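Slide 14.
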Amino acid sequence: MKPLRLTEADVHWSAVRAQGAGGQNVNKVSNAAQLRFDIRASALPEAVKQRLLAWPDGRINAEGEVVVKAQDHRSLALNRRAALARLQALVDAAAVVPRRRVATQPTLAARRRRLHAKHERGELKAQRARVVD
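Slide 15: predicted structure.
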């Protein structure tokens, strides 16, 4: 499967004010980048869209949009690049098809080891009991 590459044309950008310390500059400059990516309207394969929509991530809202905010850098361009990289990592993780789990039974030796360990632990706890004359 070829890698799914996102470009800046796939997302809607807005510049917002960053949170946290920064002195007077933080109150007048919008250097944090916020991107919105509509999963349903994207050109991603249908299977990837379904996995993304079912993904347990707080950045995906009820409308099926991924909202990523980056405010790590002092420059808007670097924050845009960081936000796009986070979105790309999320899409790459959803593009991996999860392996189906095959149910197995524990081996006879594993069952015996477990029961032996339970027996030994029970004997240890029995030694802590009050001694009766």
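Speaker note: The chain has three helices and three strands.
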